[in-house]
Amino acid sequence: LALYQKNGQLKGRHVVISAGGTVEAIDPVRYISNRSSGKMGYALARAAVEQGADVTLISATSQLPDPVGVRTIHIQSAQELSEQMFTALPHADVIIMAAAVSDYRMAQTAQNKIKKQDSGELNLTLVENPDILAQLGSAKTGQYLVGFAAETQNLMTYAQNKLKKKNADMLIANDVSKDQVGFGYDTNQVTILTKDKEPEMLPLQSKITLAREIMKKISIAINGQVE
Ligand code: CTP
Ligand code: CA
C-alpha cells in the first residue's frame, strides 16, 4: 500500500495543521497547559498526506512521534504557535487549527523558580493570548480555514458563534464532557459546521477514520467537486 497517494484529492495542496495543547511557562520548572493530546491534529496530518497533500504540522506536543512524510515543527507557547502559523499562511491552501491554545499566559514569566509563600496562597496574574484562529480569519486571502470548538455545554450555539466570529470556513465541534470524545481518547464524535450547509453530526469513530472523512470534506470544498 503506497503511503503517498500521488493522485490524491489534495495533490499539490499545502495543508498546515496545528496540534496539541500549548504550554505557557510560569517559571523555569512549571507551566500552564490543558488536556489536549494532539491525537486529532496528528490524525489529520496523516489523512492529508494520504490524500497527496504537502503537510506542515505545527505541534505543541512531544508525546507523539512525528508523522512520516510530514514537515513537523515543534513549539510550546501560543505566541510561538502564532508566529509559525503566520509564517505558513501565505504558502497555505488549507489551515486547520486543531491545537488547544491556552487562552491565557503569565503576565510575566518568573525568571527563577517561585518559592513557596509564607502567606499560604499564591496569586498569578494572567493575560489573554491572541486568538490565532480569529486573526487568521481576518488575514486569510483565499485559504480554507478550519477551527475546532471544545465545549462542555450549549455545543451548537457556542460552535455557531465561533464559526462566525472567527471567520472560519469550517468549525468542528466536539462535546468534550462525553465519554470517548475529544481530549486524550483515540476516538471522537463531532458535528461539522460550515457557512453554507446544515450542521452535520458524525458518529463516534476512531480519530484516524474521522480525520479521513474531514479531509475528504475539505478537499471537496476546495476542489468544488465530488470524488
Ligand atoms: N483558538 C486560537 N487561539 C486562541 C484560542 C483558541 O486559535 N487563543 C482556536 C482553537 O485552536 C480552536 C478554536 O479557536 O480551533 C476554538 O477554541 P476554543 O477554546 O473552543 O474557543 P475559544 O474561542 O478559546 O473560547 P472558549 O475557550 O471561551 O470557549
Ligand atoms: Ca479556549
Short description:
This protein has 227 residues and is an alpha/beta fold. It is built from five helices and 14 strands. Helix content is 26%, strand content 25%.
Keywords:
227 residues, alpha/beta, eight-stranded mixed β-sheet, 14 strands, 26% helix, globular, binds cytidine-5'-triphosphate, binds calcium ion
Architecture overview:
It is a single chain. This protein has 227 residues and is α/β, with parallel strands linked by helices. The longest helix is centred in the last third of the chain and has 17 residues. The protein is globular and about 65 Å long. Bound molecules: cytidine-5'-triphosphate and calcium ion. Cytidine-5'-triphosphate binds next to helix 3 and strand 9. Pathway: Cofactor biosynthesis; coenzyme A biosynthesis; CoA from (R)-pantothenate: step 2/5; Cofactor biosynthesis; coenzyme A biosynthesis; CoA from (R)-pantothenate: step 3/5. Its cofactor is FMN; Mg(2+). Keywords: Decarboxylase, Flavoprotein, FMN, Ligase, Lyase, Magnesium, Membrane, Metal-binding, Multifunctional enzyme, Transmembrane, Transmembrane helix. It catalyses: (R)-4'-phosphopantothenate + L-cysteine + CTP = N-[(R)-4-phosphopantothenoyl]-L-cysteine + CMP + diphosphate + H(+); N-[(R)-4-phosphopantothenoyl]-L-cysteine + H(+) = (R)-4'-phosphopantetheine + CO2.
